[in-house]
Amino acid sequence: MVKLSIVVPTLNEGHYLPILLDSIKSQTYKDYEVIVSDAGSKDGTVATATKYGCVVVIDKKKGPGYGRNRGAELASGKYMLFLDSDVFFPSRHFLERFMEIVERRRIRLGSCLIEPYPARLIDRFMSPITNTLIFTSAGIAPFAMGFFIFVSSAVHKKIGGFDETILVGEDQNYVRRASKYARFKAVPSMKICYSTRRLEKEGRLTYYPKCLLMSIYQTIVGEIDKPIFEYEFGSFRPPKATYDEIMREIGEKKYVDGAILRKILEQFKSNGNGRRNKRKRKAKSVFGKRKVKKPKNKSRKSKRKIK
């Protein structure tokens, strides 16, 4: 029996699944199992999952909620981690650090923050908004996305898993119901990277307003259990890089960003030192001058005495 069961629902994810599985394989934390729940993929998804040594369950009934439940039925871990197939861990120590936080904070239901990859300027603007929502709403109205949902197996069983009738937003519904049995806790120090492939396919100007409309619909009407909104699964362009290439790019970007930041700080420091030296020189020129006492004019006093 392992401590953590990682459950990944898939549909034609033969190109993106290796990135996730490579990131899991590289982890320093090893007390886990990976369960891939496939909805009848027509590409090499199942072969890829088998090659990486995953437990594979195949059921042609589609839907992320259904797929997650089928995978959870095979889970043997004390905890379960539900991941989307297009995410990856940006560090080899991600799971080790996260599980340490789980033990320290006694987390039974939670999530981490998210980071888009590859990201455009608008994605970098929207991502902090989403992360703020995840963190600030944790104790009031828990909000989490299917990218990363951590839960104890006991809580998952208590609520009967994901609602399979919901077409979109089953992840948020799951977290709200689970929070009745365990306090939802966000981990702001951890971020998981997710693919922006859907944004690229649908377009940012279409996708972001659609997400807003779906949220309004869920608030006013209820769960999205009818095909009102178009939300396609399993049909995306292949990624342009492997996991190793992505990690090198991220590492190089951090190096470049760090170098730029260091240069800015050094420039700021040198400018600050220059201003301070200038003030010192100015102060020295003012206070360093000796005041010459002018001789008192005694002519008036002497005149008065004569009179």
Q: What is the SS-derived class?
A: alpha/beta
- End-to-end separation: 118 Å
Q: Which segments are poorly predicted (pLDDT under 50) over 5 or more consecutive residues?
A: none
CATH architecture of the largest domain: Alpha-Beta Complex
What kind of sheet is the major sheet? 8 strands, mixed
Q: How many domains make up the coordinates?
A: 2
The portion of residues forming beta strands comes to 15-25%
Write structural notes for this entry:
- The chain is α/β, with parallel strands linked by helices and 307 residues long.
- The chain folds into two domains: 237 residues, Alpha-Beta Complex (Spore Coat Polysaccharide Biosynthesis Protein SpsA, Chain A); 30 residues.
- It has eleven helices and eight strands.
- It has an eight-stranded mixed beta sheet, with helices on both faces.
- The longest helix is centred in the last third of the chain and has 45 residues.
- The radius of gyration is 30 Å and the shape is globular.
- It starts with a strand and ends with a helix.
SSE topology sketch:
Elements: E1 4-10, H1 17-25, E2 32-38, H2 45-51, E3 55-58, H3 64-72, E4 79-83, E5 87-88, H4 94-105, E6 109-117, H5 121-136, E7 148-152, H6 153-158, H7 170-178, E8 184-195, H8 197-202, H9 204-220, H10 243-287, H11 299-306
Parallel strand pairs: 1-2, 1-4, 2-3, 6-8
Antiparallel strand pairs: 4-7, 5-8, 6-7
